[in-house]
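Checked the freezer inventory, then went back to the computational side. Two predictions to log before the end of the day. The first one is the construct we discussed on Monday; recording sequence and tokens without edits.
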Amino acid sequence: MSSKPRLDWFHSMSDKILIVDDEASNRNILGQELIHRGYAVDLAGDGREAIRKLESAPADLMILDYMMPAMNGLDVLKELRALGNEIPVIMITAYGSVERAVDAMRAGAYDFITRPFEPDHIALVVQKALERHRLQREVEVLTEEAGQRHRLVMGDSPKMRQVVETAKRAAVSNATVMLLGESGTGKEVFARNIHKWSNRRDKPFPSLRKSAT
């Protein structure tokens, strides 16, 4: 059986999470749960306060209540995106519906969770959202006029450097390599660089893409 090196991604527990909810009890309960899990937490009681806080002290992720007076969660999310703020947003509500979930995802939410929820579930969603956002920052696809369309841009994290070294070792071996990750996290960039680092670099790189339906 062939060896399949798996590239595991970096996850930090020092991330800052902004919880936005007009109910103080909801903010405090969720905040304490996330603090217990090692996250830094900030709180906001409405959408305007949340936007002001992000402008003065950026966070790594926002947990945003849908139903709030004056400015609901969807309005907050749309304004953030209009301002160019791409912070990952997890929308939560006690009044969930398919239509609201679809609207939130179309506006750029990472996920839509209905109350009541299990603490372990929202903690897992938070972890996955942070991991995906970090990968999107650390691995970029650059288009260059000189003809090299894909270049690996590394972040400063020790884990990312470790991943690159693992990829380079895999490139010079005859092992089959499986790259796992969500869409947009840089799998094709890594695949192309593994090809470039290998002794097959002078041969064509086959790229299979799903056709639009």
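The second is the one RB wanted added to the comparison set:
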Amino acid sequence: MNLELQNMHVSVDGKEVVRGVSLCVPRGSVVALMGPNGSGKSSLVNAILGHPRYTITEGRVLLCGEDITHIPPHQKAKKGIFLSMQNPPTLAGITVSSFLRNAFSALTGCVLSVVPFQKMLEAEMEKLGMDTEMAGRHVNEGFSGGEKKRLEALQLILFKPNFALLDETDAGLDVDALRIVAETIKRVSAQMGILLITHYTRILEYLGPDEVHILQDGVITRSGGKELAEEIEKQGYKIL
């Protein structure tokens, strides 16, 4: 079971920002995508899931051989693709508990009543070091960067997607929070494929990626194993 990108070209507001990216994320693997700011990493993953601002002008997204390039985002989600956004939106008036319960029902088809779901939710929140009172707060309203990222990790656990696109999940996390979130990703990675966007090697030290790709100016310039990430940490990005 693979999520495969074939010759992906992506435009934003009429400007091409991804120029022919091809890569494969097998289920059960962790693939890291690194690169400097503005290289097209976030544009790529947003386009995969179908964000309306990002237009796929050429290429295909294949899920187990099925072309899902242009199907609606909610159908991609139901097929098991999850996006952890770099800047997740605030949903004023909607509690974390209500949002997660409704999303869980829509994605899994399993409708739990309030009390059993709340028990499951609080148990997973405690594993992530989250205050269970957060379940009653409005989604991301007044949340710190670290709280937002832990909420994204919580969704990953609850929804159990086939493939997860994680856009800078390590951003804004202190050392302890990074360890918890990384351990959570590692715990679920055997059951799903992970495409992880990051600038730093800290989280990769926990995860031990199977592949590392460097994206610069919309194209992959280098690919390798975790040793490539270590090289980037020491020497910075170089266009070859």
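For RB: Helices lie at 41-49, 73-78, 96-108, 114-127, 145-159, 175-188, 202-207, 226-235. The longest strand covers residues 15-26. Let me know if you want it refolded.
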